[in-house]
Amino acid sequence: MRVTVQGDKVIRLQGDPDHPTTNGALCTKVSRYAERTEHAERVLRPLKRVGPKGRGEFVEVSWDEALDAIAARLGEIAARAPEAIVPYSYAGTMGMVQGEGMAARFFNRLGASRLDRTICSSAGGDALAATYGAKVGMHVEHFAESRLIIIWGSNSIASNLHFWPIALAAKRAGGTLVCIDPRRTETAEKCHHHLALTPGSDGALALALMHELIVNDWLDHDYLARHVDGWAGLRERALAWTPERAGAECGLAPGQIRELARLYGTTKPAAIRLNYGMQRVRGGGNATRLIALLPCLTGAWRHRAGGLLLSSGGWFAAFRNQKLGHPELLAGRTPRIVNMSTIGDDLLRETGETMPDGRAFGPRIEALVVYNSNPVAVAPDSRQVVAGFSRDDLFTVVLEHFLTDTADHADYVLPATTQLEHWDVHASYGHTSLVINEPALTPRGESRSNAAIFRALAQRMGFDEPCFSDDDLSLARQAVVDAVPFEQLRSVGWFQLPLPEAPFADGGFPTPSGRVQCDAPGIGLPDYLPPYESVRSAPELARRFPLAMISPPARNFLNSTFVNVKSLRAIEQEPVLEIEAADAASRGIADGDEVRVFNDRGEYRCVARVSARARAGVVHGLGVWWRKYGVDGTNVNELTHQRLTDLGRAPSFYDCLVEVERAA
Questions:
Q1: Which residues of 585-615 are buried (b: 16+ CB within 10 A; e: fewer)?
Q2: Do the Cβ atoms of 112 and 329 come closer than 8 Å?
Q3: Which end of the chain is less congested by CB atoms within 10 angstroms, N or C?
Q4: Mean pLDDT throughout 392-416?
């Protein structure tokens, strides 16, 4: 991103035209980043709560007063039970410096609970690691040369904008685009084929594709023999999944499955752009494993424009400083792990309570430090989350730019800098270059970077280790290994990782054996796991709540980020539920009606959009709106549950049954 500044004011914001992936473009959301930075409602001074939790009533205080009070409270808790302190963070700031750099040092030294950061991608990430050995895949730019691209679980136009021009280049060159998604997204509309499968049935579809590849002998037997372990067992499992059987699970015609298999088995090079939408269900990890094995069956990896890309994040492991957070500060302690996806239940647990997996929970959570996240809006089962955050005895500190739903429940809100105001270094999960983030503006008001805030807290708490004196530029230098020329990184803006063009043309996967693992150690062969909640897997529940609901992000929001940017909220207008015409008519619902969406967990009111984007039996609660902007002070996560995926301990956001009726 290039920022042009005049007099400490942004006058132009654009994608870097020299970067091979950004190529001069920014998505609609990030193009409004200056508006977000200069927002009139931005928190610019430390705030102390004076009203009831959740009301957002604060007074301004000095940094000294806020830091002294926070350090005193955390110190008192840490002296008794440091694990009663829990950090909560995710990808609001994705850099190594302002993410988990100084923050990790602080919480390691404190001995606080560790956070299992699972809310977005851990099911798919663990699945790739089990199959390929790491989160690795194709170079995104090589999709332009693919003759077939399957876009699976991704609305690229809305959420992967820099991939879409590459896909269009392949299309213009005669390539075929296929979209697999329950929703007829903007992306699906522009592809040659769209398979609108039912939510959570992706694994069944992948097995049926394998079935057709086998029976038609569209296999690369040499690649399988040389580079894949456990194929015989998976072959036997796949042969049981005819297109008829999978079609019944997926809500697809068997002919659609056969045609997709024919395309994939006979077109070279063929590539799959997999994304994280499809892994937010009970069987998401197994489905990811099955899809990741498809290019191994056909030998698609032999071509630089063949294979699969879910995440390129694993390529960066060798170039990141894995000790940036100074794990030695734990001094031999192994604090408990709290899963961010079950924070609703965990905030309400008592000391020593038995967890669902049989473990003792440990000490009750007494303090929560939230940064780079808005859990009251984004975590599943929000009724429970709100109840936890509303506890009078919970001490909550939030580092933020705005008074989000989470900040409204804080005891102290500390003003943080935006990306335009601080140093950082970013890895990627969509391309293969490290990126430097230099400050373009002076911090607005009294805002401080996350690293500076944790550095100041460490000083207040008497942490005198030298690593707590590192400034943000020093942290940026330390974030990468010596193989990355830091001054070159600064002068160019990015550093392209030195990787082969066709990374697995001759095997060499980052597994212990160098071979793909069908039968992964400790996990076994992948299989189709039906959703927790669906018409086929939970018929009794479906009699009361017959509609499957997915909750993909609204096009102009990034999860809950940008919801308060007025120009973007004006485009989205209001929280909506997309519903298919016959499903709406049978319930007496017309386009524009206010509706009540409900299940046993809660209810959510929004506006119905009768839409061809929805297939029969499936509704779309577009999110993630801040609760305070909702019709009744809730959002779509009032309906989602805290049950976890098969791998990665991740939330099952898109594994959810509901009913819909016109609001009274």
A1: eebebeeebebbbbbebbbbbbbbbbbebbb
A2: no
A3: C
A4: 97
Per-residue pLDDT band for 73 (boundaries 50, 70, 90) equals: very high
Number of domains in the chain: 4
Token reading at 392: 């009078």
Angle at 244 between CA 239 and CA 247, to 5 degrees: 110
**CATH code (residue 101):** 3.40.50.740
Q: Residue 79: enclosing H or E segment and its boundaries?
A: helix 63-80
If pLDDT is split at 50, 70 and 90, which confidence band does 393 have? very high
Query: For 191-236, what is each residue's pLDDT tens digit?
Result: 999 999 999 999 999 999 999 999 999 999 999 999 999 999 999 9
The answer to whether residues 87 and 134 belong to one domain is no
pLDDT above 90 covers what percent of the chain? 91
Same domain, 362 and 483: yes
Q: Are residues 201 and 264 in the same domain?
A: yes
Instruction: State whether the Cα torsion 637-641-642-646 is positive or negative.
Output: negative
Cα separation, 259 vs 274, in Å, equals 19
Tokens standing for residue 408: 């409204």
pLDDT tens for residues 580-624?
999 999 999 999 999 999 999 999 999 999 999 999 999 999 988
Residue type at 472?
D
Rounded to 10°, the helix 202-215/231-238 angle is 100
Q: Tell me, yes or no, whether 105 and 194 share the same domain.
A: no
In a domain, 563, yes or no: yes
pLDDT at 143 over 90: yes
Instruction: Write down the H helix ranges in 418-485.
Output: 450-460, 472-478
| Band of pLDDT at residue 159, cut at 50, 70 and 90 | confident
Residue of 21, 55, 8, 160 whose CA lies nearest to 627 = 55
CATH of residue 232's domain is 3.40.228.10
What token pair was written down for 632? 């009744």
E strands, 181-250, are 193-195, 228-229
- DSSP structure class, residue 349: P
Residues 394, 381: Cα–Cα separation, whole Å: 19
Query: How far apart, in whole angstroms, are the C-alpha atoms of residue 256 and residue 235?
Result: 21
The letter for the amino acid at 411 is D
At 265, the pLDDT band (50, 70, 90 cuts) reads very high
Q: Where are the beta strands (DSSP E) in 287-381?
A: 307-309, 337-339, 367-371
Q: How confident is the model at residue 31 (pLDDT cuts 50, 70, 90)?
A: confident
- b vs e for 549-565, b when ≥16 Cβ sit within 10 Å of the residue's Cβ? bbbbbbbbbbbbbbbbb
Which residues lie below 8 Å from residue 18, measured CB to CB, with a gap of 6+?
Answer: 493
- CA dihedral sign of residues 570, 573, 575, 576: negative
Same domain, 291 and 423: no
Which amino acid type is present at position 510?
P
Q: Check whether residue 290 and residue 148 sit in a common domain.
A: yes
Residues 281 and 374 placed together within one structural domain of the fold: no
pLDDT at 646: 98
Collapse the DSSP code of 19 into the 3-class scheme (helix H, G, I; strand E, B; otherwise coil) and give the result. coil
In DSSP terms, which residues pair with 399 in a beta bridge?
371, 414
For 35, the 3-state DSSP assignment is helix
Contact 553, 154 (CB under 8 A): no
- pLDDT for 32 equals 87
Which of 263, 292, 310 marks a domain boundary? 310
Which residues constitute the domain of residue 478? 42-117+348-496
Q: Name the domain boundary from 310, 339, 361.
A: 310
The predicted pLDDT at position 40 comes to 93
Rounded-to-integer distance, Cα 106 and Cα 111, Å: 9
